[in-house]
């Protein structure tokens, strides 16, 4: 049976974060608020948990799950190397609506789907999400909707779609107008914007001092 915690209440927030952390560590699924939409998350290093996440969404391995982190420094242990361009973008836009696709560290024992040796990383600008990430470490997180349905702006919308497949729902209130994160691919010499969202191409060009490619 699923549990829902109102994280706008300090006592319920504390209880909810404890329950969510325990669930993630045990391989279960949680729904959490982010600065874009509500997300469904699992321990990034638990392949069964990530598989359950994909199944809950009705999503195939061909659409691998992004990873959310709770600090800049976490990135160093997850990727092959952090380039000057990646560091500049992290320092300018994290936490916030920018996702970076980077070559993953070859030593990592995780299975996020068919990633081709890359990982999509972001640090969200939401206190509940950050508190959970700092407690449990990197999480595989995707929008908390069934594939083909609109991403949820409230926890109740997420629960209506995902039901008992998720053990813990953290309610941070409505997210407001959903704005997708901007995705920048840094796996080649020339940066490429795969999706423009919260951060504009112009802002990225200004930070990097070049004109990036656009997919």
UniProtKB/TrEMBL annotation:
It is found in: Cytoplasm. The keyword Methyltransferase does not apply. Its EC number is 2.7.7.87. Keywords: ATP-binding, Cytoplasm, Nucleotide-binding, Nucleotidyltransferase, Transferase, tRNA processing. One of its GO terms (cellular component) is cytoplasm. One of its GO terms (biological process) is regulation of translational fidelity. It comes from the Bacteria. PANTHER family: SUA5, THREONYLCARBAMOYL-AMP SYNTHASE. This is L-threonylcarbamoyladenylate synthase. It comes from Allosaccharopolyspora coralli.
């Amino acid at each position: 049976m699923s549990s829902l915690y109102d994280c706008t209440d300090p006592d319920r927030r504390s209880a909810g974060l404890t329950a969510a952390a325990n669930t993630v560590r045990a391989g279960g699924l949680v729904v959490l608020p982010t600065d874009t939409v509500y997300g469904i998350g699992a321990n990034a290093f638990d392949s069964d948990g990530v598989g359950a996440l994909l199944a809950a969404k009705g999503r195939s391995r061909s659409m691998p799950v992004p990873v959310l982190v709770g600090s800049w420094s976490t990135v160093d242990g997850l990727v092959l190397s952090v380039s000057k361009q990646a560091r500049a973008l992290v320092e300018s836009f994290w936490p916030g609506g920018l996702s970076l696709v980077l070559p993953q560290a070859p030593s990592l024992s995780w299975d996020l789907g068919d990633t081709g040796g890359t990982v999509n990383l972001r640090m969200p600008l939401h206190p509940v999400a950050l508190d959970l990430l700092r407690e449990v470490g990197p999480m595989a997180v995707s929008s908390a909707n069934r594939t083909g349905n609109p991403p949820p702006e409230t926890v109740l919308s997420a629960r209506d779609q995902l039901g008992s497949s998720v053990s813990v729902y953290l309610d941070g209130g409505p997210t407001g107008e959903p704005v997708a994160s901007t995705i920048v691919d840094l796996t080649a010499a020339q940066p490429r914007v795969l999706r423009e969202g919260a951060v504009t191409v112009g802002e990225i060009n200004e930070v990097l001092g070049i004109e990036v490619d656009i997919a």
